[in-house]
Amino acid sequence: MKTFSLAVAAVSLVAALALGTASSKNPAPATAQTLRQLEADFMNAASTRGADGFMSYYSEDAVELPNGEDALKGKPAIFKTMAFLNNKDNHLSWTPTFADISASGDLGYTYGTYEFRSRDKDGKSIVSYGKYTTIWRKQKDGSWKVVLDMGNDSPTPK
Amino acid sequence: MKTFSLAVAAVSLVAALALGTASSKNPAPATAQTLRQLEADFMNAASTRGADGFMSYYSEDAVELPNGEDALKGKPAIFKTMAFLNNKDNHLSWTPTFADISASGDLGYTYGTYEFRSRDKDGKSIVSYGKYTTIWRKQKDGSWKVVLDMGNDSPTPK
Asked: Cα(B20)–Cα(B18) distance, rounded to whole angstroms?
């Protein structure tokens, strides 16, 4: 019986290590819901802190694929194009339609729709609509950051 | 020594099972290079077999996010928009810039650039340029399929 107990104990230990879920730092593994919550926090940061808040969710090596423009590689290049978020007339909001994550909980994505509300030259309210895909990657420090973001246009909803 | 050997054998067995790498069906775990090869095969299928070849790389529940249009959900809805690939004047080609995959080897993505060569009403050659993001997911049968594809426009390269 001792032989059996030792084997069971060793097996249990290795199984726990191999499954990698016993970290006290991150007791709950990330799920699709983690990404939905991140997107809500991300949008709130952009809304309250403009470009700085928006960019705080981007990884250093992130890539932005803007419609009509070439790819922007790296946080500094992307940041330069986000000053419009500091204009109080501009409101960017988005809604994830779907979120999914890898079994290992280190890579995930969302896609959804966005609305961009602004004002034209005459101060009249204007709205444009689009879709987006955002890819999230867990960083070495355990935080989640956007590693890729892409948008394109949608028709005005009926 | 017999106790020790039994424990080691049991531990090794469980470790192999937990790591999940001991499948004779899939001896090599998927890597970013797997996705680059998939994209080459995918493009070849579209080039030689048109819409049928292109769609053979899509999962049943795939989503297409076309520029200027609403999201298309599910393979049948996407297939309807791909008949242009059967026109011998149309040539869609793409080049992945980057590929990455989750630690668990079940979810990955690529992004890159595409070229679409066609002819206008007068038969004159025309080219349009763009970028894309493709998200790949390993299916239950072990094959990899596109679960999301999104494109947008790029300027004409200088």
From this structure: 5
